[in-house]
Amino acid sequence: MKSDSDNIKIFISPINNKPTLILGFIEPVPLVLIIINIVFFLIRLQFLSVPFERDEGKYCFLGQLILDGKIPYKSFYEMKPPGLFFAYAFITLLGGNSLEGVHLIFIFINLITNLLLFQIGKKLMDSVSGIIISTSYSILSLGPHISGFTVQAEQLVAFFVVCGVYYLFCALENNKTSNYFLWGLSLGCSSLIKQTGIFFIFLSILYIFFYNYIGKKEKRKITIKNITSFFIGAFSLILLTILYLIYNDSLKEFIYWNFTFSSQYISTITLEQGILNLTLFFKRIINNYKLFWFMSAVGIFLSFMKSVRYTEYKKIFLLLFLIISFLSIIPGLRFYGHYWIVLIPSLSLLIGFSFYALKKILNSEKNASHYPTGLYIFFIFMVVLNFYNLKDFYFNPDKVRLMRTVYGMNPFIESKQVADFIKPMITKKEPVVVFGSEPEIYFYTQTRSPSVHSDIASLLTGFPKHRQFQMEFIKEVELSKPRLMILFNNPFSLAVLPGTDTTVFSWFKNYSEKYYNLTGLVQLFPNKPTVYSWGENATQNGLISDNFIVLYERRDEAINEQP
Question: Could you give the CA distance from residue 110 to residue 104 in angstroms, rounded to a whole number?
């Protein structure tokens, strides 16, 4: 019978046995893993110029506002925690305020996440399992229907959660107080990116309980001192954020947008609709990835088998991690594809565990010397089959077709074209009105919204304050007299909820007719290319689509005219 180390030598080879520096810690990285990450790095490079959708575009724009010195919930409104804005501010700064630059930074974030998952897999199982885990994450996290080619906030949540898990097992391994602190700090960061990140702090609290009170008595306990270090790490940044908000007199607005408004938002979907959403998005997500999901299910099954000799507290972690990760995507019952990114690390760990456990079972049999090799061949088959089924996506992506497949008739491709057209017409930070939920326009053009409501979705909710928001928007736009206004007559961009006051629509119609000329018309069609008309060609007489974008330019004689 071959040992685990023999199997590893067959499958991997280090580079000169020299360690590689990653995030301040030094660990050897196998050559196979380096090759896999290079392959996915090159694949992801093909998506550098894919236009943003509205969420990622909005976060990048709000990051720009932070770099301008603006105050969250005072200079702009958004129902996400402030850590998100500062994270995207840093990313947009590193990315040079460009679409391609931001994509590139996220490629490196995913690369680091992959390498961390390898290290976690090696700590929990062995190096081969670590490679399987990292490879599974590389494949699953790039899935088109989880928007893996984009720059979603969930990728940041996944990154910080994986950092937290890495430091958790470092802490259990060496009992260093600093690792307990970094474990908590990482998860604190995840909760400042999205509210659902708090689920992973609850995961840690549950795991501390299970670790200390379940399993072998001789196992080292997590001491009160180390638990305190974890909590200091988890809540120190949260406390500093609260102090920052108090100092800037925006704590009240923060509470409204992050709790009151967001609770109203998540209550708009019924349980019946939520189940339909879950079914719809799950079917899309697992398509072409069924074997990976199946092996994660095998991992769950094997974790309950007593015949699989594996440390109890590690099994508990794998199951708790999966449960908490799934719970984190439930609030709101929308189950959008990119929400599932947060689930991928736990699935990848279970895939790695399934192969690790099967290897242990097979190695216990007589004449089992070739069984583990067969398992690895099966995993290679899974990877090759996935590459074959998605060969066009991986090696020759059609970006227009990709965006239509994933996002339907959302005007994300067209928003980039409109931004490219108007960018030479305006100066940086000049006020432009985007009448629709497409704030990515501001990022592309580096212009600014004249209103704190840069995304008008909050004006169309039917929530108690939405009419007040409409009045604020109207007043701020009229005072700024923007040279350009862009109307998105699109059912997704103007997602009007029941009970919405229509004042803002009648105002926009009257205001645009009185002070503006039509200077651009973009018409979207389900089964044929988008039609762009600029300047004199932009006439509404030729309007034949119900899904369109209109560009308005203020008339010269109306520049100084009062509304």
Answer: 10
Vertex 393, ends 388 and 397: CA angle to 5°?
140
Q: Give the N- to C-terminal CA distance of the chain in Å, as an integer.
A: 86
Rounded distance between C-alpha atoms, residue 29 and residue 22, angstroms? 10
Tens digit of pLDDT for each residue in 123-182?
A: 999 999 999 999 999 999 999 999 999 999 999 999 999 999 999 999 999 989 999 999
pLDDT at 203: 92
pLDDT of residue 536: 83
353 and 495 part of one domain: no
Is there a single domain that holds both residue 329 and residue 275? yes
CA atoms within 13 A on the CB side of 78: 27
What tens digit of pLDDT does each residue of 551-563 get?
Answer: 999 998 666 666 6
| 367 contact partners, CB below 8 Å, separation of at least 6 | none
> Is residue 361 classed as helix, strand or coil in its secondary structure?
helix
Is the model's pTM score more than 0.85?
A: yes
Q: Which residues contact residue 552 at a Cβ distance below 8 angstroms, ignoring those fewer than 6 apart?
A: 484, 485, 486, 487, 512, 516, 517, 518, 519
Does residue 402 belong to any structural domain of this protein? no
Q: Please report, to the nearest 10 degrees, the dihedral formed by the alpha carbons of residues 183, 241, 61, 413 taken in order.
A: 40
pLDDT given at position 2: 41
Write down the pLDDT at residue 563: 62
User: Does one domain contain both 470 and 391?
Assistant: no
Report the C-alpha gap between 231 and 238 in whole angstroms. 11
Does 433 share its domain with 361?
Answer: no
- Write out the two tokens for 311: 């440390």
pLDDT on residue 312 = 86
Domain range spanning residue 535? 409-558
Structure tokens at 528: 């044929």
Q: Are the C-beta atoms of 112 and 22 separated by less than 8 Å?
A: yes
Residue 396 tokens read as: 């020759």
Sheet holding 548-554, edge to edge: 432-435, 484-489, 548-554, 516-523, 531-534
Q: Tokens 């954020």 — which residue?
A: 241
Residue 375 and residue 370: Cα distance in Å, rounded?
Answer: 9
Q: With contact defined as beta carbons under 8 Å apart, do 230 and 76 qualify?
A: no
Cα gap 151→90, rounded to integer Å: 14
| Domain presence at residue 400 | no
434 & 310 share domain = no
d(CA 59, CA 527): 31
Q: Which residues of the chain have pLDDT under 70?
A: 1-29, 215-220, 365-371, 540-541, 557-563
